[in-house]
Amino acid sequence: MEHIELAEDIAGETFLAALETWPYKGIPENPAAWLYTVAKNKAANHYSRLQTFRAKITPALQQASSGGEIDIDLSDRNITDSQLQMIFAICHPAIPPEAQIGLALRILCGFGIDEIANALLTNKETVNKRLYRAREKLRQEKVEITFPAPGEVNRRLETVLTTLYLLFNEGYYSESQGAVLREELCLEAMRLTYLLAGNESTNLPPVNALLSLMCFHASRFPARKNDHGEIVLYHDQDENLWNLELIGKGAYYLHRASGGDQLSKYHIEATIAYWHTVKEDSAEKWENILQLYNRLLTIAYSPIAALNRTFALSKTKGKPAAIAEAEKLALTDNHYYHTLLGELYTGIDNGKARIHLEAASQLAKTEADKSTIRRMLEGL
Amino acid sequence: MDEFILIFRHEDGTKVASPEQMQVWMKQTMDWIGGIAAQNKFKHGNGLPFEDARVVWHNNVVTNGPFGDIKETIGGYIIVKAESVDEAVEFAKGCPVLQGDGNSVEVRKIIKGDGIH
């Protein structure tokens, strides 16, 4: 971790070129091949950068290994392994999750400070401070870039998965600015999770479950926005735009996740996401989704899950029952809460629906959300 | 915010529900717990199956489960977070166990391990 800034710079400069091309092409057909190519380029650039660095800064070192090229292992295996080691080093419990995300974007994904600030909806200064503190902490803790010991993998993996999950969510749930870059966050999170799934010692059920979840969600990317960049709500989406290959991959990884007796929140969320790939409403579908949310909330509460559960309840038990449960949530400063109540009251008490939708409109942070709420108000 | 344990008491633990009844009951229980968890008030919970149940008596006498010897059995519990016992009681009122005649849910406050209580 001594040369962590150097690693950041190298990753930033070398990766940028690769990053500039693929986000616009969508998800590669063969992620493995794509991954290796990117990794190879990265390593090659890394290598030459490193040589320059050594030549300039530490000529003594150069002399020590005089007489030939420094032998760097460029095998796919080694490239993958070193990225995995870096993931574990960055996702160290000593530093807070938002700093882990920042470092992951900087070192593993090669994002520039501006891009990170933009992607995480914050400013350059905050990102710089966050990264600075994180680097200091990693140095203080003498965190090494190594793979955790076998007994430790499981414990450390939890932090890693949380970071990758948050990274994906950053891209998925905030639809505000820089749409392309936001999707890029999701794709980077997927690439890193894919690395974990491909490694013998980290190919564990929760990793596969998380990857499955990401595949299912990502399958709807093209359908989530209309030509004007506005959000298309789930029930208005054109399912012909859903990516069947990714849905298939989601099912594949969910199947792989079912080994073992661990039931992580990723398993539950992936299964919920699976049910959302079934477009048609059926009693079975919503009953399953409701039960999954019931379980999810007992192991990992989140306001979003609570609201989604209530929506599933309206589909299984009807709007009045759902309204009673929704009002108990009392998430009054959350615009999704008011949007949900607005939707539930529509057709039952349009006056109350209007009050909630107006409250939602006041609280909504993004133009996309505001325009969605406006459309709901017009439909009353 | 305090923690309360909601203990499910069955008047007659020897009654065996059909698999269909069990399924309906499970679903109702999950909906009930989900509603509490959606308010971020669920802490923990467990069913207490009757197989492998033992009662250890005075002088280390061990009997096979609670049935037969005493009328009432405990079927499970959940631990919730609540502002007051009244809120915990409101949660308890929704418990599907109460559909059974003579069944009850006991609400007990859990001592905080903070040295104050």
Automatic annotation (TrEMBL), chain B:
Belongs to the YciI family. InterPro entries: Dimeric_a/b-barrel, YCII. Residues 14-110 form the YCII-related domain. This is Transcription initiation protein. PANTHER family: BLL0086 PROTEIN, BLL7171 PROTEIN-RELATED. It comes from Chitinophaga lutea.
